[in-house]
Amino acid sequence: MTITGIAGEAEAGHISVRGLTKRYGDLTVFSKIDLTVRAREIVALVGPSGCGKTTLLRCIDGLLPADGEISIDGKRVTEPPEGVAVVFQHFGLFPWKTVYDNVAYGLRMAGVDAAEIARRVPNFIGLVGLTGFEKAYPYQMSGGMQQRCGLARALAIEPSVLLMDEPFAAVDAQTREILQFELLRIWERRPTTMVFVTHSIEEAVLMGDRVVVLQGRPSHIDQDIDIDLPRPRSRETLSDPRFAELRERVWANLMNEARRAEFQLGA
Ligand SMILES: Nc1ncnc2c1ncn2[C@@H]1O[C@H](COP(=O)(O)OP(=O)(O)OP(=O)(O)O)[C@@H](O)[C@H]1O
Ligand SMILES: [Mg+2]
Question: Tell me: the pLDDT tens digits for 110-157?
Fold first, then answer.
């Protein structure tokens, strides 16, 4: 794994997915997906449960084989690529490791020397607001704190691509809001390409430069909506009339599909 400096990664993180089809036996999850995510762009991925959002992230992370082609910065993905970090819904922390050791994990795996780890880890722990909890174990922390720790662990390798699978779904609504705005603040300091899976339409519109809607059986990219809200985004973004307009647009699209599916079931 290459660890890169903050300044050196200006254009890294370009994701290209071409004609991607994923099958599990007889089940075709999605078919012929084309998706480009530019460097530093945030794409929010939404769609009904089971449409293949997690599967697509795992393909991009090189963990699942599929037909078609995925490349990151022009390099074909055949195994977990360098510079890609993942944040999962259920924290994905090592329960037997402290906050410090969880955050240091990726750096140790990358062979970063101890002095550099000692310099870098406290920074990232501070960035997510966990200073003072370095020695705590996951079971000693709230869900929100665990998710902060998962975020710090992903950020510590200074990834060019961050894949987030419903990262805030398991925390309470208030913590979720706090974490959303913190993530936006962190992104402003060091913009990273992000694919952000969420079931929350509000969250998708708040975070994304685009909202991509995956749906159908097998699923495909049904909508790719530009979110032309200015950045930096903050709490004020939520009261922008354009925010409400875009949220309604994404919502209407998802609801139409849900109704169609219901009618088919009832037929
Ligand atoms: N290892 C597996 N073997 C067989 N089928 C699988 C496997 N993993 C996922 N699936 C199926 O693939 C489909 C897509 O699953 P996936 O987890 O990607 O959906 P999702 O969009 O992330 O759903 P959710 O919103 O509920 O997280 C589902 O029908 C699921 O049952
Ligand atoms: Mg999922």
Answer: 899 999 999 999 999 998 999 999 999 999 999 889 999 999 999 999
Domains and CATH numbers, the chain: 1-74+200-267 (3.40.50)
- The answer to whether residues 194 and 60 touch, using CB atoms and an 8 Å cutoff, is no
pTM to 2 decimal places: 0.91
Query: For the segment 200-228, what is each residue's pLDDT rounded down to a tens digit?
Result: 999 999 999 999 999 999 999 999 999 99
Name which of 106, 15, 90 is nearest 59 in CA terms: 15
Integer Cα distance of 145 and 97 in angstroms? 14
The residue among 35, 42, 26, 89 whose CA lies nearest residue 60 is 35
Neighbouring residues of the ion ligand 2, judged by CB less than 5 Å: 53-54
pLDDT band at 9 (very low <50, low <70, confident <90, very high): very low
- Which residue, by CA, sits nearest to atom 3 of ligand 1? 24
* C-beta 53 within 6 A of ligand 1: yes
| Distant-in-sequence, close-in-space partners of 57: CB < 8 Å, separation ≥ 6 | 45, 86, 163, 165, 195, 197
